[in-house]
């Protein structure tokens, strides 16, 4: 589970795992470590409530096969009472732009719990069909349906979507 002190808390490689799950399942975690995997929100909260953590996001472009990545300091997930909100500091680097814009501070949403910033609907239901930290709605979503929306945007005001083939979300204590 841990390589060079990086703990992978989400890994996506295949289309076999259903990410359209309810809140309780995202809280507890699901999947298989060797394939597709979600560690669980409660564990993320408990781990990041102590110490200082760095977040790393890796995505493999479907078209070229190139990997892009970015890292953020001060990764923290709030308690369930606070919606398991995602927090990072603004510092980032890597060969990827700042994809967390608009989702930093966002609460987690699932198909049965709409905590997003989109007042007219639920991001987790509108052809995304995965639980994630949605703002209004996202620059990147690593649990969304692969065929339509498993992708990231080049910029917040740009509708160009880059399709993703594989992805990892990782954390490391500093
Ligand atoms: Ca909403």
Walkthrough of the structure:
The relative contact order is 0.22. Strands 1, 2, 3, 4, 5, 6, 9, 12 and 13 form a nine-stranded antiparallel β-sheet that branches. Strands 7-8 form a two-stranded antiparallel ribbon. Strands 10-11 form a two-stranded antiparallel sheet. Helices cover about 10% and strands about 35% of the residues. By secondary structure, the protein is mainly β. It contains three helices and 13 strands. The site of calcium ion has 6 residues, from loops. Calcium ion binds near residues 116, 118 and 121.
Secondary-structure map with pairings?
Layout: E1 2-3, E2 6-12, H1 23-28, E3 30-31, E4 37-38, H2 41-48, E5 53-61, E6 67-73, E7 76-77, E8 86-87, E9 92-94, E10 108-109, E11 132-133, H3 146-149, E12 151-155, E13 158-173
Antiparallel strand pairs: 1-2, 2-4, 2-13, 3-4, 5-6, 5-13, 6-9, 7-8, 10-11, 12-13
Summarize the structure.
The protein has helices spanning 23-28, 41-48, 146-149; strands spanning 2-3, 6-12, 30-31, 37-38, 53-61, 67-73, 76-77, 86-87, 92-94, 108-109, 132-133, 151-155, 158-173.
Quick one: CATH superfamily?
Gamma Fibrinogen, chain A, domain 1
Level-1 CATH class name = Alpha Beta
Q: Kindly report how far apart the N and C termini lie.
A: 17 Å
Poorly predicted spans: none
Q: Any ligands, ions or cofactors bound here, and which?
A: calcium ion
Number of helices: 3
What fold name goes in the CATH topology slot? Gamma Fibrinogen, Chain A, domain 1
Strands, total number: 13
State the helicity in percent bands. 10-25%
Provide the β-strand percentage band: 35-45%
Structural class: mainly beta
List the secondary-structure elements in sequence, H or E: EEHEEHEEEEEEEHEE
